[in-house]
Amino acid sequence: MKLLSIQERLGLVSYRNQSKSEIKPHIVVDTDICNSGCPHKCTTWVCPAKCYTLDEENKVHFQVEDCIECGTCMYACDQGAVDWNYPDPEIGRGVNWNFG
Ligand code: SF4
Ligand code: SF4
Predict the structure, then answer these.
(1) What is the pTM of this model?
(2) Higher model confidence: residue 90 or residue 73?
(3) What is the distance between the alpha carbons of residues 61 and 30, in angstroms, rounded to a whole number?
């Protein structure tokens, strides 16, 4: 059996309610906190789906669309910038789980 890279595995993740444009994001990040006082910006390197990125001016940006709900950023951020809630399975956008 061929071993898949992390990127290949992430590409296999499917999402519930993907086509809905009005869904409420399950993670809201106050990037003003990221870009004013965060000394380490650790979520830009611990998020496996690269939802947190740095631009050329070292500013943090966040996009929720590729999130795989691993929960890492909820614990990694010690600055109070991350508001994290599991998506509502009926109306929220979230990962389609195969086994539970
Ligand atoms: S650790 Fe928190 S405050 Fe710092 S960049 Fe990440 S989300 Fe923003
Ligand atoms: S829950 Fe995981 S995948 Fe989603 S944004 Fe946070 S660290 Fe990234």
Answers:
(1) 0.86
(2) 73
(3) 10
In this structure, what token pair is assigned to residue 16?
């519930």
Q: What is the distance in A from the centroid of ligand 1 to the CA of 47?
A: 11
Q: Quick one: average pLDDT of 31-40?
A: 96
User: Does 82 sit in the ligand 2 pocket, CB within 6 Å?
Assistant: no
CATH class name, domain 19-95: alpha beta
Mean pLDDT of the chain: 88
Sign of the dihedral through C-alpha 67, 72, 75, 80: negative
Q: Which residues contact 7 (CB under 8 A, 6 or more apart)?
A: none
Q: CA Rg, the chain, in Å?
A: 15
